[in-house]
Amino acid sequence: MELPPVSAPDLAALLASRLCHDIISPVGAVQSGLELLDEMPNDPESMALVRNSTKSAVAKLQFARIAYGASGSSTAEIDLGDARSVAEGFMSFERANLVWSGERAYVPKNIAKLMLNLLVVANASVPRGREVKIEVEALGAAPRFTVTASGTPLRVPQKFRALLAGEPLAEAVDAHGVQPYYTLLLAREAKLKVELTSEGDSAVFKVTPADSGQEKPASLEV
């Protein structure tokens, strides 16, 4: 898969920026709630703000630990039950509902991380929400799974579409584009291909093993 070159230090820095972007809002809300409690001790609305924002920050951090973190050694495996649990926690604070189906098993970490990162892309594709569905069809030597985003308006992130199609980016990968980039990098590292099809109010991200011969690990169809 042809992806723009990004050095390891830059990738680490960009992912760190992405993580900070994700958690700054709930952490800031916790701070605001605590400041309100200083002025109005035991105020129920302020307490609710602190409680809900803390839960959101924890859910996002637990999700990021698996989706972006090292998750052990290069050969480590991840329990899909754990991946599903953090995905449900993450999506409980998003507009779209999450539906997850398929067997529970230990899989190579990059496969689990790819599922979670495609979940992020799918969720961003339906900003007003409705449903994001993950269907695990097969595991083992030939893993296959599908992530489907349903909702209106349907807007698959442009940088993901450009990277998937192998189009040159107008600018270097930045903190806004690093998550789509990392998603496809995971697919390449796991020797999987991602195919995107859009029809009506649904976008389907289908993941299958890359062809062993003339490899074509990413494609786009609208």
Query: What is the CATH class name?
Result: Alpha Beta
Instruction: Assign an overall shape.
Output: globular
Rounded radius of gyration (Å): 18 Å
- Count all strands and give the number: 8
Along the chain, the helix and strand elements come as HHEHEEHEEHHEEE
Low-confidence stretches at least 5 residues in length (pLDDT < 50)? Answer: 212-218
Q: Can you tell me the CATH superfamily?
A: Histidine kinase-like ATPase, C-terminal domain
How many discrete structural domains? 1
The end-to-end distance, rounded to whole angstroms, is: 20 Å
CATH architecture: 2-Layer Sandwich
Task: Identify the strand order in the major beta sheet.
Answer: 2-4-5-7-6-8
What is the assembly state of the chains in this entry?
Answer: single chain
Helix/strand/pairing class, anyone? alpha/beta
Kindly estimate the percentage of residues that lie in beta strands according to DSSP.
15-25%
Residue-averaged pLDDT: 91
Q: Please estimate the helix content.
A: 40-55%
CATH topology: Heat Shock Protein 90
Task: Describe what you observe in this structure.
With 222 residues, this protein is an alpha/beta fold. It has a single domain (8-221), classed as 2-Layer Sandwich (Heat Shock Protein 90), CATH 3.30.565. 47% of the residues lie in helices and 22% in strands. The protein contains 6 helices and 8 strands. The chain has helices at 8-39, 44-67, 80-91, 109-125, 158-165, 178-189, and strands spanning 77-79, 97-101, 106-108, 130-138, 144-151, 192-199, 202-209, 218-221. The strands form 2 sheets. Strands 2-4-5-7-6-8 form a 6-stranded mixed β-sheet. Strands 1-3 form a two-stranded antiparallel ribbon. β4 and β5 (144-151) form a beta hairpin. α4 runs antiparallel to α6 (178-189). The longest helix has 32 residues, at 8-39. The protein is globular and about 60 Å long.
